[in-house]
Structure formats: structure tokens, C-alpha cells
Amino acid sequence: MENGARYTGEWVKGQKVRQGKGIQVWPDGSMYEGYWKDNKAHGHGRLIHSDGDVYDGEWVEDKAHGKGVYSHLDGACYQGEWVEDKQHGNGHETWPDGASYKGQYQDGKKHGTGVFTWADGSTYDGSFNDNNIEGYGVYNWKDGRIFKGDWFNNKM
């Protein structure tokens, strides 16, 4: 294969076109196991990156597209919808310290409505814009204090 990659699996008969189920391993140790169409990851598959991160889910023309789970080696994880390799639609993200976000994403960023929970138990339920708390929302501190109102660029 090109670039020293090795492929084992189904081909278009008489051609060097990956089609159907197969496994490809790259020289850096990255590996994709799943379905192919016209030489591109297409359908359900799992990509294990050389750094240990894993994406398991749907693919369209070599890009994460549809529903899938991306797990980082450090324990962070995103489970939800993807469009052209970016978090897009509804998803749930968690981090090793216990923080989490459940809500809407657009082009790989928190955007729309969602709930962010910090490791200390404080929560924000409201609007996000381009990864920032922005618009109307409710912030609940762990000690019971509450703020309801408008936010701009992460500030009340």
C-alpha cells in the first residue's frame, strides 16, 4: 500500500480498491478496522490512533460522520453525533476530573443549549456560543447559590 500502510481485507475484484470489510495498519501503528467503500473508510469502523485515542463509530468518505464515540487515552470521552470529523449535533462529553457537558455542538464546539457540570458539582444549564457560556442560563454553585440571567463570553 501507499505510504507503507498494510491492508488486509476485501477488495473490488481485479482492482486495488478497498471495498467491504478490512483492516489497515499504518507505519506509526495507527489502525483502522471496519468497512470501506471506494478506498475510503465508510460505514461502521474503529480507528485506533498511534497515541492511544480511539474513535468507534460511523464513517463517510474517510471522515467521522454519524454517531460515534471518541475516547482519549487520558479518560476523556465524547459520545454523540459527528459531521465531517467534527462534533456536530447532540453529544455528551466527560473528562477524567468528573466534569461533563451534555448538549448541542456545532463544528466541533459547544453551541446551542446544554448542561455543563464542573468537577466540584456546580452546574450551568443554558446557552453556549462558540464554546463560550453566552445567552440566558442558570448557574448553580455547589453551596446552593443560584444565578439566573444573561451571559456574554463566559461572564454574567
Overview of the molecule:
A hairpin with a 6-residue loop joins β1 (6-11) and β2 (18-25). It contains no helices and 13 strands. With 156 residues, it is mainly beta. The termini are far apart.
Strand order of the largest sheet: 1-2-3-4-5-6-7-8-9-10-11-12-13
The total of beta strands comes to 13
Unreliable spans are none
Instruction: Specify the structural class.
Output: mainly beta
Oligomer: single chain
Q: Alpha-carbon distance between the termini?
A: 55 Å
Q: How are helices and strands ordered from N to C?
A: EEEEEEEEEEEEE
Please count the helical segments.
Answer: 0
pLDDT averaged residue by residue: 97
Strand residue percentage = over 45%
Determine Rg (CA atoms, Å).
Answer: 20 Å
- Give the proportion of residues in helices: under 10%
Report the biggest beta sheet as strand number plus sense, adding barrel if it closes: 13 strands, antiparallel
Shape: elongated
Summarize the structure.
The chain has strands at 6-11, 18-25, 31-37, 40-48, 54-60, 63-71, 77-83, 86-94, 100-106, 109-117, 123-129, 132-140, 146-151.
List strands and helices in order, with pairings:
Elements: E1 6-11, E2 18-25, E3 31-37, E4 40-48, E5 54-60, E6 63-71, E7 77-83, E8 86-94, E9 100-106, E10 109-117, E11 123-129, E12 132-140, E13 146-151
Antiparallel strand pairs: 1-2, 2-3, 3-4, 4-5, 5-6, 6-7, 7-8, 8-9, 9-10, 10-11, 11-12, 12-13
